[in-house]
Amino acid sequence: MASSVQVTNQLTTTDKEIPTPATFDGDARTRAKDYLLEVELVNQPISIELFKGLSPSYDPYVEVFQVPKGSRGANVADGALVVARDDNGAGPFPQVNSKIPSSPLFGTKPTEYFNGAGPTLKSAPGVDYVVRVTSFTTLTQLPQPFTLQVKADSGNVTLRDPITGAIVNPAGSSGIPVARFFDKTAGGHFYTTDPIEKSDRLTNPTRFQSEGDEFKAPGDGNAKVQRFLNTASGTYFFTNKPGEITFVRTLPQFKDQGEVFNSYSTAVPGAVPVYRFTNLARERENSQNITHFFTASERDRAIVQTRSDFRDEGVAFYALPV
């Protein structure tokens, strides 16, 4: 029985930057989003379709790389074998999809196969694939939405994040778990995706109480979350809002620690809100002890909303559920 997987996503300014596939483009650059493709059964024909929006400036382009099974990493496709590619968006209909396999249409070229992969791309033993969504020429504006669909004649097909290995959800994103710790000394919560920061706190349970993964930072998030250390209280503030970032940088007790993980600035399919509360009790102790609590749990939110010592500040940003 045929199996397929489909994701909807967009090329953004935070995606991998690569030279354009068009040889006539000189030093022009474009953006690319990579997906790890796993096909359960071997010797199965694979078909790939890339649908785009109505933007006339976007000429969709699909490349497929072959990598050793279980490969991971942001640059996993670098230096890998190219086995197929297609630019079926040329000609009089720029909205035409890129497809593997494809046939000539109004002067366009059929799918190109390499390294013995053609005339039909089939799954092989001991390998996975990287499906790269990009544009044939440079992109004049971003973001550019797309829908990617991959099919195999038999067996399951799975698209994964090339860095984390997490299965990509239908909304097009995978996420890195954000762990939450309660700092018993500072009296506030700490959130991190960093393995070293997690390990440091897990090995110090006297001070830090692990509260598990609170949400996932989306790999394709369109807004970076900035972290600030409040040197007066020892607690941390997180925000993806440009206006708040600029303002907090003017407060002398806050030390900017840079961008720590991705988020969405608005609700997207599959995302959940992360709520923010101000701890009023800490501020009453000292006006500089500005301390916040963040949660993606509707249950936790409802509990905190009943407490008079916390002020509900609504949605801080959007992320993915754990």
What is the H/E string?
A: EEEEEEEEEEEEEHEEEHEEHEHE
Uncertain residue ranges: 90-95
Percent helix, as a range, is under 10%
Biggest sheet statistics: 7 strands, antiparallel
Bulk shape: elongated
- Beta-strand content bin: 35-45%
- Rg, rounded, reads 23 Å
Distance separating the two termini = 31 Å
Structural class: mainly beta
Mean pLDDT: 88
Please tag this protein with its features.
322 residues; mainly beta; seven-stranded antiparallel sheet; four-stranded antiparallel sheet; 4 helices
Brief summary:
The protein is mostly beta strands and 322 residues long. The protein contains 4 helices and 20 strands. Strands 2, 3, 5, 6, 8, 9 and 11 form a 7-stranded antiparallel β-sheet that branches.
Question: Overview of this structure, please?
Answer:
With 322 residues, the chain is mainly beta. The chain has four helices and 20 strands. The strands form five sheets. Strands 2, 3, 5, 6, 8, 9 and 11 form a seven-stranded antiparallel sheet that branches. It has a four-stranded antiparallel sheet with strand order 1-10-4-7, with no helix packed on it. The protein has a three-stranded antiparallel sheet with strand order 13-12-14, with helices on one face. Strand 15 and strand 16 form a beta hairpin. The longest helix is centred in the middle third of the chain and has 8 residues, at 195-202.
